[in-house]
Amino acid sequence: MHECLLCKRDMKTSNDTFGNGCIRNIYSFLEMSMPKKVKLREDTLYKNIMKINRIRNINMNQKIWLTDRYLTYQYLDRLPYGDYSRLKKQINTEIQSINQIKNNEEPKSTKNMSLKQAYDLYKKATKFTEGINKLRQGNFTDEESIKLLISSFSFIFHMNKNKSQYENNSFRAMQNAFWQTVIEVGGKYVEFDISADFLQHSLEKEPNDLLIKNGKVVQEIVKDKNFQDNINNIIEKYGANRNEFIFDSTINSDFPMRFGESDLYYSLNNVSLYISGVKYGETWNLDIKIHDRYDYSKRKTLSEHYNDVNSVPKSIFSSTMYNLAHYSINFGVMKEYDIDIQFKINTTNFEVIE
Q1: pLDDT digit string (tens) for 272-295?
Q2: Region of 308 on the Ramachandran plot (φ > 0 left; ψ -120 to 50 alpha; else beta)
Q3: 190, 169 Cβ separation under 8 angstroms
Q4: SS3 at position 351
Q5: Neighbour count for residue 329 (Cβ, 10 Å)
Q6: Directed axis angle between helix 143-151 and helix 115-137, to 10°?
Q7: Is there a contact between 55 and 66 (Cβ–Cβ < 8 Å)?
Q8: Of the four listed, 158, 232, 329, 334, which is most buried by Cβ atoms within 10 Å?
Q9: CA neighbor of 276 nearest in space, from 268, 284, 266, 287
Q10: Distance of CA 313 to the CA centre of its chain
Q11: What is the pLDDT of residue 12?
Q12: How far is CA 143 from CA 17, 22, 150, 300, 312, in A?
C-alpha cells in the first residue's frame, strides 16, 4: 500500500508522494502557482520549498522530509489555538540540517507531531472557527440549525489518551475560546448574564470560592416564583404555630430548591438551602443561605432542560452548553468552586432586608 504523505490515504497504483487532491490543496495553502502539467507538480513543490529555505543539493528522501517538516511547520504556524513554539523551533532546526537525514531515518520531531496530525489539527481549527463565527451571528432558531452548529465544534470535547499532548493542548485552547465566545455573545442570546459570570470565573487559573450577599444574583433569586413558592411551603410546614424556625435542606429534603427562571436554573444546580426565620406580627424575617458547587458533575438529558416550552431551540442550546461544560470540567479547562449566597428578606412583599 502506498499512502499519500499528507492525508495517508491509499493511492493504489500511483507512485507519487501526494494524492492529486492533496497536491492541489498544498499549492493553494502555500499560495504558490501550480504547474499545469501533473508530472511537474511535486518536483516544482520540492524546488520551491528548497528555495524558500535556501537549501541545495539534497537527495529525494531529504526533499520529501524537508517538504514534510516545512508543511508541518506552516500548518502549526497558522493555528490560533495552542502553544507550539517549542515544537516549531525543533522543526525549524531540523529543516536547516535536513541534509543530515539518512535514507533510513526520520526527523525526531515527527514523534511529537506528524504532518497528518498537523494537517488534521489545521482542518479542525478551521472548522471550529467557522462554528464560532456562526455562534457569534446567533442565527439559529430551530432544532436543525442548532444541531448543525453543535457539530461544528463538538469535536474539541473529544479528548482522549490516544491523542498527543500537543493535540490535547490545542483542544483545550479551542474549548477556552469556545467558552469565551459563549460568554461574549451566547449569553446575550439566551439572556444568561449570571451563568456567563459564573462561567467566566470558572475559566480562571485558580478561581476563588464566591460569597454573594447582594446584587443581581440575590435580586433574581428573591423574585423567582419557584423560590417564593418554596419559601411559603416551608413556612407553612415548619413555621406553623411558631414564632421562629430553622430549615436545613441537607437534613430535610422534602422541599428541594429548583429555580424556575432560566438563568438561575442553569447557574445554580443541586443547591442546599438553609433558612432561619423569626416572626414579627404577620411577617416573617428570614435569614437565607444558599450553597452550590460549580461543578457540572452529571451530564443531563435534553428532557431535563425543556423547562421553557415556548423556546425549544433555547432548551436544546442550553442543555448542550451544560453537557459540554461537563466535559470541560473533566479536562480541567473549567474549574470547580463553591458558591455561597447569603441575604435576608421579609415575606410581606419578598423584599431584601439591607
Answers
A1: 999 999 999 889 999 999 999 998
A2: beta
A3: no
A4: strand
A5: 17
A6: 150
A7: yes
A8: 334
A9: 287
A10: 20
A11: 78
A12: 44, 35, 11, 18, 7
Shortest CA distance to 71 belongs to which of 37, 121, 105? 121
The grid coordinates listed for 3 are: 499512502
Task: Tell how many helices (H) and how many strands (E) occur in the chain.
Answer: 13, 6
- Residue 116, CA distances (Å) to 73, 173, 226, 296 in order: 12, 20, 53, 34
Cα–Cα distance, 354 to 191 (Å, whole number): 27
How far apart CA 251 and CA 233 sit, in angstroms, is 16
User: What are the CA-CA distances from residue 28 to residues 25, 34, 182, 262 (Å)?
Assistant: 5, 8, 33, 47
Whether the pTM exceeds 0.90: the reply is no
Q: Which residues of the chain have pLDDT under 50?
A: 301-310, 312
Per DSSP, helices labelled H in the chain are: 20-29, 38-52, 60-77, 85-96, 115-137, 143-151, 165-181, 187-190, 193-202, 216-223, 225-238, 262-267, 312-331
124-162: pLDDT as tens digits: 899 888 888 877 776 655 666 666 667 777 788 876 655
Count of residues making up the chain: 354
C-alpha cell at 307: 423547562
Beta bridge partners, 343, equal 288
**Using CA atoms in the order 233, 236, 238, 239, what is the torsion angle rounded to 10 degrees?**
130
User: Can you read off the three cell numbers belonging to residue 4?
Assistant: 499519500
| Residue reference for cell 473549567 | 334
Which amino acid, one-letter code, is at 29? F
User: Hey, what amino acid is at 110?
Assistant: T
Contact status, residue 32 vs residue 48, Cβ threshold 8 Å: yes
**What amino acid occupies position 299?**
R
Cβ atoms of 3 and 9 within 8 Å: the answer is yes
Alpha-helix runs per DSSP H in 10-100: 20-29, 38-52, 60-77, 85-96
